[in-house]
Every structure is written in C-alpha cells, then in structure tokens.
Amino acid sequence: MSTDTQALQAEVDRLRLELKTFHVDAGVEKISIGNYLLTRLAQLDVTSMFGLPGDFNLGFLASPTQRIWSKTTPRSTGSEIADGYARIKEGSIGVLTTTFGVGELSAMNGIAGAFSEMVPVLHIVGVPNTVQQKTRPLLHHTLGDGRYDAYGKAASQFTICQQYLMDTQTAAEKIDHAITECITKVPNFLYHTCGGFAHFDPSRPVRSTSPFLPTSSIEEISSERLKIPLSHDIPFNQPEMEQAVVDLIYGRVKAANGDVVVIVDACVIRHSVRKEVDELLKVTGFPVYATPMGKTAVDESYFRYGGIYIGSLTPPDVKEKVENAKLILSIGSLGSDFNTGNFSWNIPKTRQIEFHSTYTEVNFARFDNIGMKHMLPKLSERLRDFYPPGHRLPVPAFIKQLPEENTPVISHLWFWPRVGYFFRPKDVIITETGTANFGILDVPLPSGAILLNQILWGSIGWSVGSTLGAALAAKDVGMERVILFVGDGSLQLSVQEISPMIRKGLKPIIFVLNNKGYSIERYIHGKYRRVPFVPPFGYNDVANWKWSSLLDTLNDGGKHSTASYTVDNKEELNELLDNEAFAAADNLQLVEVMMDALDAPQTLERQAELTGKGNAYAA
Amino acid sequence: MSTDTQALQAEVDRLRLELKTFHVDAGVEKISIGNYLLTRLAQLDVTSMFGLPGDFNLGFLASPTQRIWSKTTPRSTGSEIADGYARIKEGSIGVLTTTFGVGELSAMNGIAGAFSEMVPVLHIVGVPNTVQQKTRPLLHHTLGDGRYDAYGKAASQFTICQQYLMDTQTAAEKIDHAITECITKVPNFLYHTCGGFAHFDPSRPVRSTSPFLPTSSIEEISSERLKIPLSHDIPFNQPEMEQAVVDLIYGRVKAANGDVVVIVDACVIRHSVRKEVDELLKVTGFPVYATPMGKTAVDESYFRYGGIYIGSLTPPDVKEKVENAKLILSIGSLGSDFNTGNFSWNIPKTRQIEFHSTYTEVNFARFDNIGMKHMLPKLSERLRDFYPPGHRLPVPAFIKQLPEENTPVISHLWFWPRVGYFFRPKDVIITETGTANFGILDVPLPSGAILLNQILWGSIGWSVGSTLGAALAAKDVGMERVILFVGDGSLQLSVQEISPMIRKGLKPIIFVLNNKGYSIERYIHGKYRRVPFVPPFGYNDVANWKWSSLLDTLNDGGKHSTASYTVDNKEELNELLDNEAFAAADNLQLVEVMMDALDAPQTLERQAELTGKGNAYAA
Fold first, then answer.
1. Which residue has the higher pLDDT, A133 or A451?
2. Where is the Thiamine pyrophosphate enzyme central domain (chains A, B) (predicted)?
3. What is the rounded distance in angstroms from the CA atom of residue A8 to the CA atom of residue B416?
4. Where are the alpha helices (DSSP H) in B442-590?
5. What is the pLDDT of residues A6-29, one digit of tens each?
6. Tens of pLDDT, residues B416-433
C-alpha cells in the first residue's frame, strides 16, 4: 500500500470505531473529566505538565496529575516551560495548568510566544465551578465587576481554540477537539500582511488551546471515547492539483539544469517535515542552507549543508552561492525581521519556489491547499533522476575556525567557535534572545544536535523556562546534554526556574554570559548610550549578581549536587571545557563567562544597526 | 466661599485657560511627545516609573525619563511595582513602561490586578513606529500574522481607556484624556452581578490606561496645553437630590437614636474620602469598624475604632456590636469573598445605608449619581448634633494581647501580636496574599501606619514588587519604615525585585514566613493533603531556599549594606525585634521566620474551610 492508502485505511478504521461508540448502551466505564483529560495526555506521551497550584485548580491537581505535575516558580514561566517541552518532543504537546485570572494572565506572554512561534501548547485553566460561572459572585481572582469571561476573551487573541467544560455531556468531545486542534495544526484564520519582506506561512497553524476546567468538573463521564486515539492526520492535497504542481516544479528544476539550492526554515520543524526534506535532499543532492530559525532542521554535519542564509548578513561565500542559484526551493519559510537580516533576502520570486504547510507558491503562482507534508514525498520521487546534476553545485564547507587573538579576554568572536568544539551529538542547545541567538548562528552543530531559539517572539528570559521543559523532554526522547547560553540580564528575569531544575535532578549546563546588561539594546539604540551610563545606572545595565552563589541559594536545602564556575579568560574557559568531568554533565552546572559589555557577535552588530534605523529614533 | 463654590471657580478658571489656547497662534513652544507625557507625569508628582527596556521603547527611555526610570527585573512585576507606588501616593498615579507584545503581555496580570483593586496605573507601551503600524511587517515581538492590534484588544479587558498616539495633531489631547481618566476615576461601564453577597461599588472606577507610544513619537508638538493642569475634580451631585438624600439619612439616624455604627471599606481609600470619613466620625462620635480591605482607612489608634468586621469570621464581641446596631453606615464597601468572611455579613438592608463613589443606597432605595465624596461633608454638617448620642454606643477596645504559649515554636497565634508591638507610627506594612493577609487583621496598627494588601485580586508574589513601589513612594510622602510579610512560596515568585531594592538603597524589612510551601492552599483543599506529601514532592511544597544567602547573591557586587537573619524560636525573634539597630531599618534586612507548615492564623483556617466548600471538590 502507498502511504496515502495506509493513511486512508487508518482514517476509515478510526471513523468506524467512533461510530461504534454511538451504539454502546450498556456497561460503560466511568471516568472523571480530569482523568479523561489526563488519559488523553498520556496517550500523547505527555510526561510532565507545568504551572502553579491555585485554589481553582486544586481539585484537578489532586487527581492523578500528581504523577506528571511540575510546579513552576514564577507564574509567568509555566507557558515557557511547556513551550520548551513541546519543541523537543515532536508529535506530543506542552501542557500548562493555571488558575483563574491571576495564573492564566501571568502565562499570557509565554502563550502568545507559543502562538507566534507555532509551538503546540495546551493551556488548562482551573476556573470557579459551574454554578459560580452562572451566578458570578464577587470571588477573589475576579475583576470585581462580575465579568467571568474577560480572561477568555483576552486569551482568544493568542489561542486558536478555546473550550469551556461546562457539563458532562460535552466535556469529552470538547477535550478531544481542543487537543486535536493542538496536534493537527488546523488553520484557524488567514491574515495577510503587506509590509517589508513579510512572506510567511499564512495558515497560522496551531498554537495553544484552552479547555477551562471548573473546580466542579470532577464529575464522571464515559471513558468509551478514549479507546479511539486522537488523530495527527492533516488533510490530503487534492490529487490532480498536487500532481500538476509537482509537474510544474519538475519543469522548473529541469530548466535550471540542477542549479538548485534548498533553504530550510522554521516551519520544517514546526510542521514536522524534517524526514520529507531529508529524503528530498538525499535523492537530489541539492545543496541546502538554513535560516536562523531553521538551524538544525537539517543535520548540520550533512555534507551538502552550507550553513546559514540570512540575507545581507550572510557570509559572502554563502550569500553568493545561494543568491546566484538558478532556482531556490524555500521550504517552510518564516520571513521575520531577525530571521531574514531585516527583510534583506535577495532572491527574486522568478527564481523561487515556496513550500508551506497549506499552500505552495511557484514563482508568482499560488496553489492553495497544496501543503508540503504530503507533496514533498511525491516531489522527491519525481526528482529522483536529478541526483548527478544536483551534485554539481559546490557547497562551501560549514566550518568555524577558532580565530587567533592575542588577548586573554573572552570575545564573542572567539567564544562561539570555541564552544562549537565542546558540542556533541544529541546535545540540546538553547540560546537566549540577544547575543547568544546571533553568536550560535555560524557555529556548526554536531549530527543529531538540536538548537532551540525564539527569534520571532524574542521574549528575553524565555530560554530559562524553556530549558527546564526541554531537559524533561530530552530524557524521554533520548537526547543527552542540555546546554543553555543566556545573558546575565535575561537570566535575572526567570532565574527561579533553576530551582525546580535542581530539585528534579536535571543537569543542564548553563553558560551565563556576563556582560553586565542588555548588550543587544545597547547596539540597537545608538553607540553613545553604551558607555559610561548615567548615575545611578543606565537603563541597559543590570545589577552584578554573585552568580557563583546562586545555585547554593536556590538548592533545596543543599540536597542536590551542583557546581558553579566563573571563567575570566580564554585559558580558564579552555581548561573547563576540556575537563571531562565537566563535559560529562553529571550535575547541574553554571558557568559565568566574563565578557566585555560592548562586545557582541558581528551578525548582531549589523542586525541591530538595521533595527535601530527601522525604529527611526533620532540619533 | 463654600467648598463647592471654590471648586466651581477653579473649574471656570480652568475652562477659560483652556479656551485661551485656541487663540494662541504665534510663539508656540515645541516639545516632543515623550517629553509632553513626562511633563504631565511630573505635574502629578510622579517621581518613578517602572518597566524593562525593549527596542520599541528605547527612544522614549532615552528621553529625560532617565531621571525617573526604574528598571524592574522580572517582566511581570513592573505593573505590581506601579500598583504599590500608586497605593501609597494618593492623588498621583503609578506608571509602567513596557515594550510591544512581550513586555505588555508580561505585565497583564498586574494590570488586571490594578483594575480589579481600582488602583490608578498608567501603562505606557512602546510600539513599532507609525509607518510600521500601517504596513505591519513581520517584526519580532509580533504574532507573525500581521495583527498589530491583538495586544490592545486583550488589554481592553483590563483597562478603562486606551489611547494610540498616531499623530502630532491629537497626541497631547489623547495623553491628557488618558491621564485624566486615570486620576478622576470616571465610571466606565456598569455591570451588575447577582450571586452571593456581591454588593460592591458598581462604578468600576479608573484602573489603567494605555497610551501607546510608537518609537517614532519623538516628534514635536506644542507645549501650550501643559500650562493647564489636569483636573482631579469629579462630578458634583445634583444639589436637590443630594439634599433629599442627606435629609433621608438624617431621619434614619435620628430614628436610630444614635445607635449607629460605621463600617469603612476599600473604596474609602481608593476614592480618597479618608478625610471626609474622619470628619463624619469626629462630629458624630459613631463607633467605626473596618473590613480587611478597609484596614487603616481609619486610624487604628482612634478611640472609637473597634477593629475588623468580617462577617461570620468576626471576633464575637465585635460581631455582636456591629450586627446589633440599629443602623449601619457602610462606606465604600467592596463585598468580595475574602473581604466579607465568604459573603457572611449579617446586616439586613433595612438597617443599612451604603455610600459609594457614584451612588448611595438607603435601605432598599438607590440614588444614582449621588457620590460620597461630595455628599459626606454635607452629611457631617447635618449630623453635627449627634455627638452626644453617637457616643453612647460602647466600642470594644481593639487590642491584641500576646498569648501565653509554653513552646518555643513561633506560632501564628503568637507571631502577629508580637510584631504588633514592633510597629511604629508612619510604618508602611505590606502583607502578601495567604497567611500574612489574615494574620495582620486583628493586630492594631499605630497611628498613621498604612496597610497594603491585595485581598480581592489575590495574586501571590504581588507584595514583593508592590513593596519596591511603595518604598519609593514612601520617601516622597514622609512615611518611614516599609515592612513586608511574605511567605517563602510567594517570595520565590518575584524574588528578583529585591535586587533593585538593594540597588536603589531602599531599606524595607522583609519577613519571610518560611512554612515550606503554600499553607493557604493546604487549608483550602482538604487536610489529608497537608502532610507527608507524595514523592518527589507535593504540589503545595516549595524548595527550601537558603534565604540567608539571598541578599548576598542579589546584591550588586556587594556594593550595598544588607543584613539577613534566621529566627527559629520566640526568644530569637524577641531579641531581634527589641534590637534598636534592627528596628531603625538603616539597611535592607531580611528575616527568615521558621514556622510550622501546618500552622495558620485562625481566621484563615476558617475562611479556607468556607472556600473549600464553595469550590465543591470531592473531599
């Protein structure tokens, strides 16, 4: 059977089973609504969920969730932990549980970030019971004006589906619908923008869904539906149209005589088409490049991989190779400012084909509802004979040599290639918005390593919670070390999350780039604001914490083994990175890396200059 | 001239001046929009504003805001700092500046809290420039779908006024309108609820307003309007109707023959009628009681003050005195669950008169647009001859004796009266949601002391940011020590804010009640969840931090003097509180108070029992 036929057969089986439930009239097993939801999560292999206890979710938390429940520390990071978890655990989802008002609103920035970056997060909110929902008394955690729907209305801006569990008749169906929306990434609304280089996947696939869980929803319902697993399947493309598009692309590739490059971007990861892309690359031999958000979508050790394309900020040899190809296949692109060198892709539509989750664009022609997931395998099949011509195009070697510098100071120029040698296969590497996001770009990562970043949403502090979630998920999927690069300013925002990391026995290596403030902002807004800051202190400076005593302070009565290091110069960092015990990551380790406040990766310097101009401040 | 005439004259002057600006046609001084806004804030004596830098607000921050700008650490607490600042500085406002998306959404919980608790907070959001607002490119901090209005739509649920500064023609007017809304507490919408004992001030006065500040708004405008100060005046009552209501109330008081008690609540503080209430009390001699949210609305050392009335949770002697009075004057009430002993006020409408900001209710009769601010002085005048009969009613002495306990363990029963002896006039006392909010209730506070709590919104962690804001404001208004009581669980949520406290040389005393978790939640949801928690740990437990090393870790390179203490028993606490150097509060001090995980103030135990029942969990 072909893949399509298999999928269709599975769908038929599923529908038959679903129909069957309507005929069940006796011997139904009962289950509480809370446990129904938890069973669905277990079926998706959700092994942790996150959030804070609150009196409107205690009933739910007291159910068997205890097994998977992880308390977070600041309220605001629960959504970011769920986000990090979901990014690592493809096919599963991140789950966050909060309480009415105070909890759910605290999570809003992280929820909006998951929405923006298309990460599947399920937000479960414990709300007052169904009677109170109707009588709306002046309870704590309310706005004092009887509006019980205000939080949901606000959340609707950042979620594609909301379900209110108000009765036993519809609860199971609503839960299934919310989770299915979350895992199948069903398009919700279309919205086109028109400025700059804002081409992007307009389907705005799934982000976050919110079944609200009133405290009284421990009532029981039938468990019958649980026998039918929820489906991850997404709609097939219309076959004749899909065939026509494949033919059209084949013609373009043939006309280019194999002078074709591929650019992979964020949506390759988000829409789970890594395998389909790998197959295309394997059969064609086309050179492949990644955007910043697409980094590690393709294995960076792949011999036809040439590194990062980021418009005008691209290294010259790569830039020339990409922009001069006769045809560019752009897969899963997300054209945000920081992902495109401030909208500076220099690739005319006449030489570009775009593959998205819900449409395909061949030069100027748009084909709606022709999604890449189902089409890419057919295209690979069709292009199989392009292997030799596809190989003709040379690819610059993606390597990063350690520069010679005759100063002991740890510069960004030296630091990033140096840590590049430290990475291993199956590392999860997380970079914070700011210097780290840019510094990592031209460091080749080993086979099987995964990079997480949040380049579109760009909420500083995100990486810390995300590291906690990613570290929990990494254990489930066989990834090994988890390595975070975060600036001192960003870490201060969500530093508490290190405490549950310690408590749960997680062992990330946390590199704290101590440059005494927000270097990225110093770069964006005018050099004259960079140095000596006005007393009492400039707005881009932060307090100089004693990072070496942090782990000891946050440790749970000193129960867990941790280690802290401060490295002042290259020699100290070399020594630490070469230390096998350190590299083995057997306990949670924090490394404070002393850097100059005015140093930054070159790509960032140039990006910041462009952003500063865009913001149009007077100098 | 009477007060009314004076106010009218001032209004006439103001209108004349405003008219004059329409005739100015030459020699207009120019000012940037950012500086216009800052000048308005300076006119309101705003000496600090709060938030984090972000690339869409850097242009604004780089303007002379630097003088008043305070960077916060976690993004989520900026709004809570502004809230604390506004609570102390009556007549002024709290100001928060954030950046597009990531910043403003992070502040949403605190903004909603200020809305709920009716605290005037102005939220200034730096957004992409006016050209980008129209072309909507795929910038970082956007949702990736071109919706630039989503954040504003979400915020509209929690703010009474939003202004988008999009051009130079309307910017000044929009700024003035937003700030005026904020300071005059103009009713926005009416919404009636009907469940439980949900009587409350339905005018939902001002909370937060949001002028959005695009990065390009450094353009210049006329400074002419700045000559007219913004008016705090609220509408007068219709004179004949007001007179009729005063007469009616006079009749009721006369019928009660002076057997009258007064209950003051939150809105006495929020609507600035403390002076008017004091005058009423002075001329009548009526006994007065406060609700939890009304505590310190009336000086607690006042000889006719009898303590806290909280429905069925009230101490028996107070309960009897309040509920048996022939007439109860309820001023500025806010009938939320935790403020009323779970809606257990036992006062029939036939014996109650309610005074609110925008209406008055005499038994069952409602008089719209008769607000207490203007009516109370007239009522006091009318009731002047009630002084002797008003004095007849005895008031139980509001004292709290230290109980004899033959254990060294610091119990809540002992702790709260003990710290009562430590308080001084002009202390600002801040209590966190949870045990502290309840423990403080029956401790009499000295003359001129102010208590801050957040009983309606109840967002744990609020008190920490609020302490930072309150401490800055306290310096401006001549208040002295700032004393925070916070549980270890709550402090972990927003602990970073201690860092800017240290950096700014603020000297609060922070009592950390270390009970190893969320005791309030343990009480709300069933005793069996209180002790030995399931491994790896129960959801109401928190990590046991090394509190004694916290200040050292967060200190800015050890530049500032701080002190940390851990007190394990009564003797150690006594010794510390009696230490004059400690009591002088000359540096920032943190006191970890070791308490039993299952101990709580009695009022909390009983409230939690009621809330647990309301939530209707299966036991």
1. A451
2. 260-364
3. 69
4. 462-477, 488-494, 498-503, 519-524, 550-554, 570-578, 580-583
5. 777 777 777 766 665 554 445 578
6. 999 999 999 999 999 999
Query: Contact, B267 vs B233, CB < 8 A?
Result: no
Distance from C-alpha of B183 to C-alpha of B271, rounded to nearest angstrom = 10
Q: Is B101 annotated as a binding residue?
A: no
Q: How far apart are CA B505 and CA A46, in angstroms?
A: 46
Instruction: Please tell me which residue of chain A has the smallest CA distance to B547.
Output: A553
Question: In this structure, what DSSP letter does residue B307 have?
Answer: E
Average pLDDT, integer, range B383-395: 83
Mean pLDDT of A287-291: 97
Instruction: Identify whether B536 is preceded by a cis peptide bond (ω within 30 of 0).
Output: yes
Give me the total of CB pairs closer than 8 Å, taking one residue from chain A and one from chain B: 383
Residue that wins the pLDDT comparison between B17 and B281: B281
Chain B residues close to A140, C-beta within 8 Å: 336-338, 455-458
Q: Is A60 on the interface with B (CB under 8 A)?
A: no
pLDDT tens column, B29-54: 888 888 888 889 899 999 988 887 77
- The pair phi, psi for residue A32, each rounded to 5°, is -70, 155
Residues composing chain B? 619
With vertex at residue A519, the alpha carbon angle to CA A513 and CA A520, rounded to the nearest 5 degrees, is 115
Strand A428-431 with A365-368, pairing = unpaired
Judge: A549–B545 Cβ closer than 8 Å, yes or no: no
Closest partner residue to A494 (CB to CB) among B74, B550, B552 is B74
For residue B537, what pLDDT band results from cuts at 50, 70 and 90? very low
Q: What are phi and psi of B214, to 5 degrees?
A: -60, 155
| Mean pLDDT along residues B146-159 | 89
Helices (H), B355-458: 372-382, 387-390, 412-420, 435-439
Q: List the single range of A48-62, A83-97, B247-261, B605-619 with lowest mean pLDDT.
A: B605-619
Question: Looking at A136-255, which runs of residues are DSSP E strands?
Answer: 161-164, 208-214, 220-222
**Average pLDDT score over residue span A349-371:** 93
Residues B456, B464: Cα–Cα separation, whole Å: 17
In the predicted model, what is the mean pLDDT of chain B? 84
Q: What DSSP designation does B29 have?
A: P
- DSSP string for residues in A212-250: EEETTTT-EEE-GGGGSPPP---PPPPHHHHHHHHHHHH
- ipTM of the shown complex: 0.89
Q: Which two tokens stand for residue A578?
A: 């070469």
Q: Do A58 and B524 touch (CB under 8 A)?
A: yes
More reliable by pLDDT, B184 or A20: B184
Peptide bond preceding A536 in cis form (omega within 30 of 0): yes
Nearest to A617 among B59, B193, B196 (CB): B59
Task: Identify the CA nearest to A64 among candidates A78, A80, A46, A81.
Answer: A46
**Which domains are present in chain A?**
26-227 (3.40.50.970), 239-390 (3.40.50.1220), 412-525+534-613 (3.40.50.970)
The distance from CA B154 to its chain's CA centroid, rounded to whole angstroms, is: 23
Distance CA B95, CA B78 (A): 9
Query: Distance between CA A110 and CA A279 in Å, rounded?
Result: 34
In the numeric block, the tokens 């005319």 are attached to: A348
pLDDT band at B533 (very low <50, low <70, confident <90, very high): very low
A218 with A63: CB under 8 angstroms?
Answer: yes
Residues of A in contact with B118 (CB under 8 A): 144
What residues of B are in contact with residue A616 (Cβ under 8 Å)?
129, 131, 215-216
pLDDT at B200 over 60: no
Q: Say what the pLDDT of residue B518 is.
A: 62
Give CA angle at B270 (B267, B271), nearest 5°: 80
What tokens appear for A144 in the block?
Answer: 């004092």
Chain B residues closer than 8 Å to A130 by CB: none
